[in-house]
Amino acid sequence: MSSPKSFSRRARTPIALDDAQESLRRKFHCRLQSERIQLAALATALSQVGDEPSSAFEELRLCAHRMHGAAAVFDYLEVAAAAGSLEQASEVASTAHAGNFDRPVWTALVSLLGLLDHVAPQPSKSSR
Asked: Is residue 82 within a helix (H) or strand (E), and if so which, with residue range?
């Protein structure tokens, strides 16, 4: 039989983990703002790239890959799905040597940016 002291310690552990996970989840939510800005900058770069957009597609793929995984961990399932779509579209476009206005990439990119506009906190007027 466990002593009350050890039972009590075990009972508090999930709450402490929940608090820590919730703190990380809030930090991730705030990080989405910078991810949105980075994606917008990558979109601008992709629209202005010359004949060989493969490196721009690869940068988009890497950004989307990181966001896809982190969003899934923190149960931002719509963001994870949209980021996964962008990751796949960017990989296909890069492999196929598609032009910089590849429709599947831009569809996925615009969709993810729109979603992040609603999910990510917007900067306050005082921080501008």
From this structure: helix 77-95
113: how many CB neighbours lie within 10 A of its CB? 16
Q: Is residue 93 part of a domain?
A: yes
Whose CA is closest to 82, among 115, 119, 57, 104?
A: 115
CATH code where residue 67 lies: 1.20.120
Neighbours of 78 (CB within 10 A): 13
* pLDDT value at residue 48: 94
Which segments of the chain are extended strands (E)? none
> How far apart (Å, rounded) are the C-alpha atoms in residues 25 and 70?
10
Report pLDDT digits (tens) over 75-92: 899 999 999 999 999 999
8-state DSSP, 99: -
pTM for this entry: 0.78
Q: Residue 68's domain spans which residues?
A: 30-120
Average pLDDT of 90-105? 96
Average pLDDT over residues 101-116: 97
